[in-house]
Amino acid sequence: MIRLSDGAATMNKKAPAGNRPNPLPGCPMAAAFAAIGGKWKLTLVYWLAHGESHFAGLRRRGAPITPKVLAEQLRELEADGLVERVVTGPVPAPVIYRLTPYGTTVLPVVESVRVWGEEHLQRTYGEIAPNEAMSCAQPVSPELARRPAPAPDRQPHAQRRGA
Questions:
Q1: Which phi-psi region, left, alpha or beta, contains residue 36 (left: φ > 0; alpha: ψ -120 to 50)?
Q2: DSSP letter at 38?
Q3: What DSSP state is assigned to residue 98?
Q4: Is the pTM here over 0.90, yes or no?
Q5: Cα–Cα distance for residue pair 72/12, rounded to 1 Å
Q6: pLDDT tens-digit map of 40-51
Q7: Long-range CB contact pairs, 2-7, < 8 A, 24+
Q8: CA–CA gap between residue 112 and residue 23 (Å, rounded)
Q9: Mean pLDDT, 10 residues at a time, over the chain (163 residues)?
Q10: What are 106-125's pLDDT values in tens digits?
Q11: Is the dihedral of CA 43, 57, 49, 98 positive or negative?
């Protein structure tokens, strides 16, 4: 979603990532950062690689993440097809978040970043912080990280969602 103000295009920051324009069309790095960039997205994908979770469970695990930011990050991951939101019954039933098959294709990247982060913590601080709730010390399952990528879906995102 783009708003025009004084002849300049600006991005609507509230639009999910799947609906925002890529700042560098055709650039794979920009596309990757649009999908998994952000303060919490890789961490959320990491946590969901270890099992589906309710919103409240993710909120407890990521105590410094505000509910608003957590909801935004999950919505953006969902819009990009990496995470699915499963409603378990009528309102106010809990909602479960889990990785989609496409979401598992980013797990090798998540594991590489996690390993690099461990090495960086060792180099910078001489140790890894033992905060269990926020910890990302457990490797991503090799079985998940090696899953073959699903066949590419070339339909624009809005068409896939029936919009």
A1: alpha
A2: S
A3: E
A4: no
A5: 13
A6: 999 999 999 999
A7: none
A8: 25
A9: 37 47 82 89 94 92 88 95 92 90 95 91 78 68 51 41 42
A10: 999 999 999 998 898 888 88
A11: negative
